């Protein structure tokens, strides 16, 4: 697809010409365009493009998009470019985590992070991720020790939310994308009509990030950046409410997806796996005693993940694609 032709068809002409209104805000976008997936990058960009179309009136914000290639050092350098250009807001961290955020904070430029993970104590930043940084890897490390299985929390699913299993692992721990189904269907129809392509998780993430950006810019007209960002925190996007700074990860924030052909385990490991599946499978939310669920939730009861596959009931064998709010 020729992205310039698509943009020309969808964006207001003012965004595409050098003579755009001087009053228009500028949004800097740090996009993993060349790696790990050009297709996902295009979907992120098209999602942002569609959301930008909802801007009311004239002087729609102007996008400046730069490619980080999922490289934190490049993202840091791009942040410096945006600081020099005095952009009004930056969107990024679909792939990197916290890259450029500190420099932008010092410069007083708000930052919207779309990473699945979130970092504590970040001023002038809205984070759409629901999982504390490195929490997934810690859970996976404990599960590897307890079960003896090859469990990874560092696969491509943390970028594309697609829980795909390779031959090198027995299970993957992946973030779960939550959506407002009614809004999803509405936006998906508009997206399909505009771009002749199916609406994807990546497109939805781009759309949600731009929703946050536009909400902030509307408020920033009469407020200081920190106050406008705080007000924006209360909004609801296509992917649900923007997480508050101290919000704990919901119990369904992650999914642990097992292969159906697991290796042979010793008796203790088999017993541990059986209890894990019964405790965290979709038939036993929170380890509640019901229909054979264990009374004792074990060490996993409060951890933010559910189990799919690995001997769970038929309704739980497939990974969660989208979790409706």
TrEMBL record:
It comes from the Bacteria. The keyword Signal applies. InterPro entries: Peripla_BP_I. Residues 1-24 form the signal peptide. Keywords: Signal. This is Leucine-binding protein domain-containing protein.
């Amino acid at each position: 697809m020729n992205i310039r032709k698509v943009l020309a068809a969808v964006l207001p002409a003012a965004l595409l010409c050098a003579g755009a209104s001087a009053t228009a805000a500028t949004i800097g976008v740090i996009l993993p365009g060349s790696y790990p997936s050009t297709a996902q990058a295009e979907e992120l960009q098209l999602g942002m493009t569609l959301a930008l179309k909802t801007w009311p009136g004239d002087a729609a914000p102007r996008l400046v998009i730069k490619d980080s290639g999922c490289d934190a050092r490049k993202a840091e350098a791009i942040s410096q470019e945006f600081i020099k250009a005095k952009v009004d807001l930056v969107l990024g961290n679909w792939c990197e985590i916290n890259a450029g955020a500190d420099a932008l904070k010092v410069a007083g430029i708000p930052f919207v992070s779309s990473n699945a993970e979130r970092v504590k104590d970040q001023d002038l930043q809205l984070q759409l991720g629901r999982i504390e940084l490195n929490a997934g890897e810690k859970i996976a490390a404990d599960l590897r020790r307890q079960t003896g299985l090859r469990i990874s929390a560092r696969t491509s699913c943390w970028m594309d939310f697609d829980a795909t299993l390779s031959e090198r692992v027995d299970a993957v721990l992946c973030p779960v994308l939550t959506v407002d189904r009614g809004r999803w269907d509405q936006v998906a129809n508009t997206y399909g009509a505009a771009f002749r392509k199916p609406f994807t998780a990546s497109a939805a993430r781009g759309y949600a990030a731009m929703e946050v950006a536009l909400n902030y810019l509307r408020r920033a007209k009469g407020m200081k950046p920190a106050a406008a960002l705080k007000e924006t925190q209360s909004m609801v996007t296509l992917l649900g409410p923007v997480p508050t700074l101290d919000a704990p990860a919901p119990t369904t924030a992650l999914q642990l997806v097992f292969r159906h052909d697991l290796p042979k385990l010793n008796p203790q490991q088999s017993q541990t796996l059986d209890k894990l599946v019964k405790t965290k499978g979709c038939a036993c939310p929170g380890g509640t005693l019901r229909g054979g669920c264990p009374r004792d939730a074990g060490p996993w009861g409060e951890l933010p993940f559910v189990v799919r596959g690995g001997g769970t009931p038929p309704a739980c064998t497939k990974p969660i694609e989208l979790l409706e709010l």
